[in-house]
Amino acid sequence: NTTIDDPSAHFQTTLWTGTAQAMTITNLGNSDLQPDLVWFKRRDSANSDHRIQDSTRGVTKYLTPDQDVADATYSGYITSFNSDGFSIAVGDGSSNYGAGGGGAYVSWNWKMNGGTKVTVSASGTQRAGTYQANATAGQSIITFTGNNTDGATVAHGLGKKPHFIIIKRRDASNTDWRVWHHRLWQDGTARQ
């Protein structure tokens, strides 16, 4: 187990109100946190989707975790990951994303490795891909190429078995998100 004296060095939640202008959002934890993965949502509107952007894929790519759609490209949400937060554009003119005037927003911000990725080549059962890891906090962003074969391994850079995994196929819509936790059996029931 790892002892972390200041969790805000690895993860922070941030709240803000949109101004209908491009904005810089600052994390307010004890430590400066340059996020590598930002999951954000408007809190006061049922019609706004969740968005995830990360420094591995770059600021023009986003995923929508409340839908089964593919990776999308758009430059109107997060425009940069900064030393203690991120910059966000007004977006598509809708008040549902990021800087829309008067909207109440939340972001969950994870620090990995400052955008520095490790590239892994395919070898045997090892899948080709990249990872950006924060082994101290036990979290990483991983991209890999699947081949529809059981028994594949995926590099994650954590140095020990992960306890929680979220997977999404990024190149196709109508593909579900997959979630696994070490305290659940394969049928989804809790372990004692």
Structure description:
- This protein has strands at 11-17, 23-26, 37-42, 51-54, 61-62, 72-73, 78-82, 85-88, 104-110, 118-120, 129-134, 139-144, 164-168, 177-181.
- With 192 residues, it is mainly β.
- The radius of gyration is 17 Å and the shape is globular.
Q: Kindly state the mean pLDDT as a whole number?
A: 89
In angstroms, what is the radius of gyration?
A: 17 Å
Structural class: mainly beta
Strand fraction: 25-35%
Number of distinct beta strands: 14
- The H-and-E topology, N to C, reads as EEEEEEEEEEEEEE
Query: How would you write the strand order of the largest sheet?
Result: 1-9-3-4
Largest sheet: 4 strands, antiparallel
Regions with pLDDT < 50 over 5+ consecutive residues? Answer: none
Distance between the termini: 20 Å
- Helical content stands at under 10%
Strand and helix layout:
Layout: E1 11-17, E2 23-26, E3 37-42, E4 51-54, E5 61-62, E6 72-73, E7 78-82, E8 85-88, E9 104-110, E10 118-120, E11 129-134, E12 139-144, E13 164-168, E14 177-181
Antiparallel strand pairs: 1-9, 2-8, 3-4, 3-9, 5-6, 7-8, 10-11, 11-12, 13-14
Supply the key terms:
3-stranded antiparallel beta sheet, single chain, 192 residues, 0% helix, globular, mainly beta, 14 strands
Task: Offer a concise description of the structure.
By secondary structure, the chain is an all-beta fold. The chain has no helices and 14 strands.
